């Protein structure tokens, strides 16, 4: 018996806002919504699909009352599909992302950004 990676859950203050942002970033759709949570994905999962094979995981945004107390231990890496990095950075800034300084140095070829999560 094995397990499948089915979803990544993100604690946040505003699940609707983050779900809308990540739907635009990743071209995902809302596939489930409940009290204080929103699930998005590139496909609508069924139990049969999940049991049959590894499928792309979904993202679940869950409202929590407490704020973040330390640095995030997880981040998502995204890459532009049909454009330049500069063009994608401009698009993400327009969606509400912000540039983040994590001390990466000037010789790196990636851009660090933060989603429009409510400040913790």
Can you walk through the features of this model?
It is a single chain. This protein starts with 6 loop residues before the first strand and ends in a 6-residue tail after the last strand. The strands form two sheets. A four-stranded mixed beta sheet has the order 1-4-3-2, with helices on one face. It has a two-stranded antiparallel sheet with strand order 5-6. With 120 residues, the protein is of the alpha+beta class. The chain has helices at residues 15-26, 47-52, 85-95, and strands spanning 7-12, 29-34, 37-41, 58-63, 98-99, 113-114. A hairpin with a 2-residue loop joins β2 and β3. The longest helix has 12 residues, at 15-26. The protein has a single domain (7-65, 75-114), classed as Roll (2,3-Dihydroxybiphenyl 1,2-Dioxygenase, domain 1).
Strand neighbour order, sheet with most strands: 1-4-3-2
Strand residues, percent = 15-25%
Mean pLDDT: 86
Secondary structure category: alpha+beta
Largest sheet descriptor: 4 strands, mixed
What is the CATH first-level class name? Alpha Beta
Report the principal-axis shape. globular
Q: How large, in whole angstroms, is the Cα Rg?
A: 16 Å
- Taking pLDDT < 50 over at least 5 consecutive residues as the criterion, the unreliable ranges are none
Amino- and carboxy-terminal Cα gap: 39 Å
Number of domains: 1
CATH fold-type name: 2,3-Dihydroxybiphenyl 1,2-Dioxygenase, domain 1
- What's the helix-strand series? EHEEHEHEE
CATH architecture: Roll
CATH superfamily: 2,3-Dihydroxybiphenyl 1,2-Dioxygenase, domain 1
Give the fraction of residues assigned to helices. Answer: 10-25%
Number of strands: 6
Number of helices: 3
């Amino acid at each position: 018996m094995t397990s499948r990676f089915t979803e990544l859950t993100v604690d946040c203050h505003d699940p609707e806002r983050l779900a809308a942002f990540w739907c635009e970033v990743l071209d995902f759709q809302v596939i489930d919504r409940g009290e204080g949570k929103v699930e998005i994905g590139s496909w609508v999962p069924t139990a049969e699909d999940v049991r049959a094979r590894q499928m792309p995981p979904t993202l679940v945004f869950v409202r929590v009352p407490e704020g973040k107390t330390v640095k995030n231990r997880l981040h998502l890496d995204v890459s532009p599909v049909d454009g330049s990095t500069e063009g994608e950075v401009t698009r993400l800034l327009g969606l509400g992302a912000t540039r983040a300084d994590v001390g990466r140095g000037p010789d790196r070829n990636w851009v660090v950004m933060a989603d429009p999560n409510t400040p913790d």
